[in-house]
Each structure stands twice: as C-alpha cells, then as structure tokens.
Amino acid sequence: MKRTTITLVGLATAASLAFTACGRDDDAGAGGEAQSTAIADGKAKGTIEVWAMGTEGEKLGDFVEEFEDANPDADVKVTAVPWEAAHDKISNAIAAGEGPDVSLIGTTWMGEFAEAGGLMPTPEGLVDEADFFPGAWQSTEVGGTSYGVPWYVETRVLYYRSDLAKKAGWDQAPTSWDDLKQFAEDLKSKGGAKYGLNLQPGQTGSWQSYLPFAWTDGATLTNDDGTEYTIDSPEMAEALDYYTSYFDDGLSMTRTLDPGELESGFADGSIGSFISGPWHAGLVEDAGVDESDYAVAPLPGKDDGMGTSFVGGGDLAVFKDTDNADGAWKFVQWLSEPDVQQEFYDEVGDLPAVQASWDTGELSTDPQLKVFGEQLKDAQSPPSVPTWEQVAASIDGLVEQASRGDLSGEDAVKQMQSEAKSIGTGL
After folding, report:
1. CATH: 3.40.190.10, 3.40.20.10, 3.40.30.10, 3.20.19.10. Which one for 157-309+385-423?
2. What pLDDT digit, counting tens, does each position of 353-393 carry?
3. What b/e sequence results for 347-385 when a residue is b if at least 16 CB atoms lie within 10 Å of its CB, and e otherwise?
4. CATH number assigned to the domain covering 12-155+311-380
5. Which of 78, 114, 271, 283 could make an SS bond with 30 (beta carbons 3.0 to 4.6 A apart)?
6. Model-level pTM?
7. According to the UniProt record, where is the region Disordered (predicted)?
C-alpha cells in the first residue's frame, strides 16, 4: 500500500469553525432555482483559478500540465490554501462574490456553502453519478441537488494485530458485532493486549467513530429531503449502547489518547485493534509494526458481513460567481476521468472517488488497498446540511457523556435529537 500520509479533510478542524452567509440576496440557495451553465463542446479556454488545500494544493499546480497541453488556450492557476484557513477564506469569498472558479471543498462543508448560494449546481451530463462511490456522491447533494463532484475519498476499516489475533485463536477478522466484541475480549485475555479495541470516548470528531455503528444498524440522521433531523431512533440508541459497552467492559481506553499514543500502543501490543483510515498504515509502520504483524478488514456488520463505514474526502465545486464556468467544469470533468484519478493517486496518495480507477494498477492488486476499496462500497457521509457541524459537536459531547456512563444510549440520542431540532437543518 502506498505509504503517503493522506490529508484529513473537513473533519476535526471543521467542527470548530462557524459559517455565516451574507450579501447574496440575488442567489438561490440549496434547493432553490439556481441553474448551472451547461458546458459547451470543444476545448477549455481562458484562465481557470483553482483553490486547493493541503498536499493537493501543493501538487496540483504541476499536475495540471497535461490538461493545459490538451487545452492550449486554457491557463490553470492553482493557489495552495492551508486547511486551517480554508473555511473562512471560502466563506468570505462567497460573501464578497470574489471566489475562484473551482475549489476543493471538504465534504462536511458542502451544505453550508451550497445553501449560502455560493456554489453552482453540477451540470446535467457532466459526469455519471453511478461512476462514483455512492457515499462520496451523497456528500455533494444538498436539498436533492448536486453542487459538485467527488474528487478523492477516505474511509475507515478495522486495523488489528494479526499476530496477537492468531495467538488468541483468530485466523480471520470478525464479521459481526458479537464477533467483534469476542475478538476484543480474546485479544485482551489471550493475545496479551491491555485494550482489545480502541474507540474514541467522545470529544471532537467522535461522531465519525460512533455513526458507522448506527448506520450499520439502519439509523438515519435526517429525513429524505434533509429538512428534519431523525436522530432519536431505537437504532441510534442501540448502536450507542453497543459502542459504549467497550468502555464499560474495559476493552477500550476511557480517555482520549495523546498524539502518537495509539500508534505506539499498537506497536507494543497494548492496543490490539482500532478503527481508522488509510493514512494509518504508514503511521503504524513508522512506529515499528512490521507489515506481517497487522492486517486490515472491513467493519463488521451487526449480524454478519460488512458493516457501513464513514466516507470523507474532498469534493470539487465551481463558484456561482465564476467568469469561466465552461472552463471550470471542463477542468472538474478532466479530474474525474478514471485514468487521471489513478495518476493523481500515484502522485499524492489520494484514494480515487471514481470506482473504475480501482480496476488496474496498485489499487487493484494491493491487499490493503483492496479492503478500503471494498469498504467504500458501503460507506456513508453525514447529511449535507448547513448546520451539520453544530449538530456534530453536540453528538460529540453526548457520546462522551455516554462513554463515561453518565447517560444511557436512549437518553443520549433523545438529547441529540432535542439539540439538533433546536439548531435545525438550515434547509
């Protein structure tokens, strides 16, 4: 598996950021009457200003030479934007009507920026929705309308010490919730681990660890049109009770780990397993874990088979105020081609959002990567509603209370619903 550390997008950092839209009375927000300009035949022309964050912003400038060669009258200008400054920069650009033509946008920000009227709906026929992983495409839809195209993705799987699992009598990964609990218990009692499965006991971003269990159990977060939260359900409560049982039973640490502590604990065998994304392969190996001593597997289903994971990553969107919509969408379309996505994976390590990109090369042969590709077929994004970050922060706090034993799953999700209802979806 490629050992490039993959950028985390729109996750913990975004949770602390607020967004206020203003000065766009003439623009339709999400679900309104805004229409995207259809792309014309022929090659892209003119200047295409692009904002991209993290490693993507650093690498994209050189990568676009192939597009410029194929479109000699187009000039792509890439500005690298730090992730910590990106939310406010995009927010201010929308308010002022002075954004770029194209921008990378964290998946959990799509609802805010689309509802503000700052993004152009995706032109019909630009790409085929079916070409993308379903959860990735879901992140672009706000009020039933797509406002961008998935660029790259990440999802979470089970990492486990295969050597300790073998010592504990396991020659394969667990495939059900009961198996996972027994697996964690055996890693502790027979494999020598102090903690069988590390889970996040609240604090920022814990919703990303908890919600896959809820989705696996059939829970939903909003109604179909995103106008109401539906958090208070038996499935949400059951999943939270199951999640917190790992803390109750001493199978997971009840405090948030310090930076590097997860990797060192996995390396010394005190932590037998954990759930995380593709970037952790390089981190645990850097910490001293031999490739032969650990494995990855899809998240287990409630009863049997593969469960539902979280999908994050980055989407490409065209700003409503662009002066070059045709060139901007043609650039987005180019970045969505399977071979281009595979080339960008080779350059940066971002997992492609287009499923066909996984059919050849390292993505089709590397055993670890194939697990992530399989998990992406059953992965969900949070609802693309303007208020999601506020609701996510509420869920984080209540997961923490439940993990400490201060609230039952039923009481916690009732409070989640109450707080979410007070906030509203913003649609």
Report:
1. 3.40.190.10
2. 999 999 999 999 999 999 999 999 999 999 999 999 999 99
3. ebbbbbbbbebbeeeebeeeebbbbbbebbebbbbbbbb
4. 3.40.190.10
5. 114
6. 0.88
7. 404-427
